[in-house]
Write a structure and sequence with these properties.
By secondary structure, the chain is α/β, with parallel strands linked by helices. The chain has 16 helices and 18 strands. It folds into 3 domains: 4-191, 3-Layer(aba) Sandwich (Rossmann fold); 200-388, Rossmann fold (3-Layer(aba) Sandwich), CATH 3.40.50; 401-503, GMP Synthetase, Chain A, domain 3 (2-Layer Sandwich). Helix 7 links the parallel strand 10 and strand 11. The two termini are 44 Å apart. Bound molecules: xanthosine-5'-monophosphate. Residues 298, 345-346, 348-349, 392, 394-396, 437, 471, 508, 512-514 line the site of xanthosine-5'-monophosphate (XMP).
Length: 516
């Protein structure tokens, strides 16, 4: 059991980042919607609470209140933005609308009394922070002192060091508050006294023991996609149950160049897992023939995938468990019904529906991990770098990147262009952290070009590269023009039927990351 922090979510867009910063400090934390039953939150035995930001105003009738158990626990509390106002309001301070809404980068000034607490030590005397609020704490509650003030003099941070209650008006969890991560680390470790024991090695040990206890002597099946989540899931389960794990890899024909061979090489040859590799290309292509609607393509692929998986699992014989690489953000999002769920914009498919149909119980060892933690666990498990650092790839694969009807020729054209893009980005060191997703898209549009002395009439390839923290919003990557020129040259020279390359300079929103 690790020392833990409970984060209560009041609806801010950046609450998950708070959790990630705490985990980066090797302290375990969980995120709960603010109205989670007290017993559920307290079962974590939290050594401290963080109250997130949120869109409400504390003086509105419908504003989410501070659950009483937080102060009753007498554990340290850190309120962020709305969380700070809530704390001030609950303890008899006064919160009012600010004369002017503060949004974006701002400077705060530490004030004299700061020394009474070391929480804000990581901040410079004049520190850059990120603000996003319309209300302010006008009068501090009894026992509190101001720790920092905004340029306009309003309270930017407050604290009652004796009771270990703190509030910051700014957002320490975002990158635009450079010293923010350190403030959160201090809160967890110094103020709450949490031991930094949440490490990949500790997680692996506990997860393996846990899977072993759950599965007992039964058999497990796991779908491998080639991505990091399913790879880490399978490796953990393999450590726990050995050859009682069967992995199924379905080649849908919609994968990138070289991917099917690499999955087999890695998991069967290198890691020694029982791997059933099914080439279902023909099946998927014929099911997709003549289909142009993006959502229908997704549905068809989802259905065919389940059908193939089910058939293979049945062929393997009695299986009781299905291992899945569900991550913490999915768990959080499904627990928060009032959060706008970007995923409704597109029908996502994984192996949903399969567990009930096959009467399988789920093993989800990653359901409390963020993606960056999964990568750290993958590295500690000794998985190949290429797997650990693979960028996310959509379940329907290249079917949503070949716009319009999917045919084998179009897939091959796209694979050729895409592999050039990835090769050049890899060489420039841009696939691990600098861009979160980069790929090519084949447009169903032909344009006129000239090559040598002749006219060409070929297809257009669009390049997409984005930077993002959580894939809910994204910005287009400012790639070096020389790099783009190299990719473009190589594509029109090396890929038949393509005579034009464009670069997508749209952010999300209003566009999405994928084109379909
Ligand atoms: P969008 O295009 O909605 O994508 O901005 C956000 C992230 O989700 C991935 N994506 C999918 N993943 N099935 C998946 O498993 C899908 O149908 C699907 N559509 C988009 C996308 O690659 C990006 O990482």
């Amino acid at each position: 059991m690790h020392d833990a922090i409970a984060i209560l979510d009041f609806g801010s867009q950046t609450t998950q980042l708070v959790a990630r910063r705490i985990r980066e400090a090797h302290v375990y934390c969980e995120l709960f919607p603010w109205n989670t039953p007290a017993e559920r939150v307290l079962s974590l035995s939290p050594r401290g609470f963080i109250l997130s930001g949120g869109p409400a105003s504390v003086y509105e009738q419908s504003a989410p209140p501070l659950p009483p158990y937080v102060l009753e626990s007498e554990q340290p509390v850190l309120g962020i933005c709305y969380g700070m106002q809530l704390l001030a309001h609950a303890l008899g301070g006064e919160v009012t609308p600010a004369a002017r809404r503060e949004y974006g980068p701002a400077q705060v000034k530490l004030v004299g009394e700061t020394r009474a607490s070391h929480l804000l030590d990581p901040l410079q005397e004049h520190a850059q922070v990120w603000m996003s609020h319309g209300d302010q704490v006008k009068r501090l509650p009894a026992g509190f002192i101001a720790l920092a003030r905004s340029a306009n003099g309003s309270v930017a941070a407050m604290g009652d060091p004796q009771r270990r209650l703190y509030g910051v008006q700014f957002h320490p969890e975002v990158a635009h508050t450079p010293a923010g991560a350190e403030v959160l680390r201090r809160f967890a470790i110094s103020t709450c006294g949490c031991a930094p024991t949440w490490t990949p090695a500790a997680f692996i040990e506990e997860a393996v023991a846990d899977i072993g206890a759950t599965v007992g002597e039964k058999r497990v099946v796991c779908g491998l996609s080639g991505g990091v989540d399913s790879a880490v899931t399978a490796t953990l389960v393999h450590r726990a149950v050995g050859d009682r794990l069967d992995c199924i890899f379905v080649n849908t024909g919609m994968l990138r160049r070289g991917e099917p061979e690499e999955v087999v090489r890695t998991f069967r040859d290198q890691l020694g897992m029982e791997l059933v590799a099914v080439d279902a290309t023909e099946l998927f292509l014929s099911a997709l023939a003549g289909v142009t609607d993006p959502e229908q393509k997704r549905r068809i692929i989802g259905e065919q995938f389940i059908r193939v998986f089910e058939r293979e699992a049945e062929r393997l014989g009695a299986v009781d468990f299905l291992a899945q690489g569900t991550l913490y953000p999915d768990v959080i999002e499904s627990a928060a019904p009032d959060r706008p769920d970007a995923r409704r914009i597109k029908t996502h498919h994984n192996v949903g529906g399969l567990p009930q149909r096959m009467r399988l119980k789920l093993v989800e060892p990653l359901r409390y991990l963020f993606k960056d933690e999964v990568r750290a666990v993958g590295e500690t498990l000794g998985l190949p770098e290429a797997v650990v650092w693979r960028q996310p790839f959509p379940g329907p694969g290249l079917a949503v990147r070949v716009l319009d009807e999917v045919t084998w020729e179009r897939l091959e054209t796209l694979r050729a262009a895409d592999s050039i893009m990835l090769e050049e980005l890899e060489q420039a060191g841009l696939l691990r952290g600098e861009t979160q997703q980069a790929f090519a898209v084949l447009l169903p549009v032909r344009t006129v070009g000239v090559m040598g002395d002749g006219r060409t009439y070929g297809y257009v390839v669009a390049l997409r590269a984005v930077t993002t923290d959580d894939f809910m919003t994204a910005d287009w990557a400012r790639l070096d023009p020389d790099l783009l020129a190299r990719v473009s040259n190589r594509i029109v020279n090396e890929v038949a039927h393509v005579n034009r390359v464009v670069y997508d300079i749209t952010s999300k929103p209003p566009a999405t990351i994928e084109w379909e």
